[in-house]
Amino acid sequence: MARPATSDAAPDPRPALQIAMIGHAFMGRAHANAYRQANHFFDLPRRLVPAVLVGRDAARAAAAARQLGFLRSTTDLDAVLADPAIDVVDVATPNDSHHRITMAALRRQKHVLCEKPLALSTEQALEMAALARKQRVRVAVWHNYRRAPAVALAARILGRGDLGEVRQVRAVYLQDWLRDGAAPASWRTSRRNCGSGAHGDLNAHLIDLVRALTGLEFDAVCGVQQTFTRQRPDGQGGSSKVDVDDAFCFLARFRGGAIGTFEASRVATGRKNHNCIEISGSKGALRWNLERLNELELFTADDGADVQGFRTILCMDPGHPYAADWWPDGHTIGYEHTFVHHVVDFVRALHDGTPFRPDFADGVAVQKVLDAALQSIGKGGWIKVGR
Ligand SMILES: NC(=O)c1ccc[n+]([C@@H]2O[C@H](COP(=O)([O-])OP(=O)(O)OC[C@H]3O[C@@H](n4cnc5c(N)ncnc54)[C@H](O)[C@@H]3O)[C@@H](O)[C@H]2O)c1
Asked: What's the whole-model pTM score?
């Protein structure tokens, strides 16, 4: 009888890709999880090494590094950027720091994964995109919803032209965590920190999704916004001014004639994370809703008249995007997996020298729409989206 054998795991021959992550709260946790799961589930050309976590408070950063699986932590961003061993800088901090941190990382020739919205203004976003091009590094914006399997399937269906000419899109991203006037102020309620409210936070995702799915480019927009609570508790017994929108809706005209409606809200009572998009074409339609992440609703006019109707596809079979690398047929995945797919595709694109989207050019395009919609509020009418 053969004797039981034990052997040490062979050393991993793949070159390391060392990651520095700035910020370690909500998105920091989502990104850190993505680096670990990407290594674990996907066959990647590079071994991802969550190397250093950068925070503003040494003790909190050290605790976060331990929990999130980073090798070390620091409060010294400049030293991290000066370290030639760091390949990728991940910007997971509030919006007002994206431009400063990204520009500093690009000057050091790092690849950058930056959270959305890319910047506070089109001018900032253009600078970031120009420097990334000049430095010949790879960059990405964390519009992770593109990489839900059902969304990637929707992109495949639309890309094949199965739905005919796209005529209308209706996109809503609804939350209600600011419904209550007693909900505290934060960087998300201060224009200086975030640029705008639900608009930059949630419409940014919708704009990216529509561009990614349909290939349509915005021609002009017309918006309306409201702030229902203008002072919020500051957490220290006082109150803070709210100078961003609680809800922001806009109409859109696309080049080529399609039209669309967009609605973002943090006061949509009862809605928690209702990110939903419906696209109507001349030969069919589809609808996706983050709250039913793995399902795609599809209507095709080719079906016989007596069986026509929206059908629901559970996008968890091996033929569906990303599904084969997870679990057997029908074993569903969740929100965090969209970030894993983003990392996987980025690392493969980096290795192969192939394009990765959304890149900073996409971030600029989103920012132009955001800014045009904000301008339309000030001017009270339609505003052309800059080309
Ligand atoms: N892709 C998505 O679906 C998604 C979801 C939520 C948030 N976001 C974006 O991610 C970014 C971060 O949002 P969050 O929800 O993680 O915020 P958060 O408040 O939960 O965390 C922010 C982190 O950044 C740190 N930080 C703040 N200012 C900093 C600075 N100047 N330098 C270094 N660190 C700093 C904080 O200490 C904290 O660790 C925002 O741009 C937000 O719009 C994206």
From this structure: 0.97
Q: Convert the pLDDT of each residue in 251-263 to its tens digit.
A: 999 999 999 999 9
Instruction: Compute, in angstroms, the gap from residue 378 CA to the centroid of ligand 1.
Output: 28
Q: Is 11 part of any domain?
A: no
245 lines ligand 1 (CB under 6 A): no
Task: Indicate which atom in ligand 1 lies nearest the CA of residue 27.
Answer: 16
Q: pLDDT tens-digit profile of 281-332?
A: 999 999 999 999 999 999 999 999 999 999 999 999 999 999 999 999 999 9
CATH number at residue 215: 3.30.360.10
**Rounded to 5 degrees, what angle do the CA atoms 151, 155, 158 make?**
130
Please give the tally of structural domains in the chain: 2
Residue 66 domain boundaries: 16-144
> Which of 22, 27, 68, 339 most suits a substitution to test ligand 1, by most atoms within 8 Å of the C-beta?
27
Please, which residues have CB within 8 angstroms of residue 386's CB and are 6 or more apart in sequence?
Answer: 122, 368, 371, 372
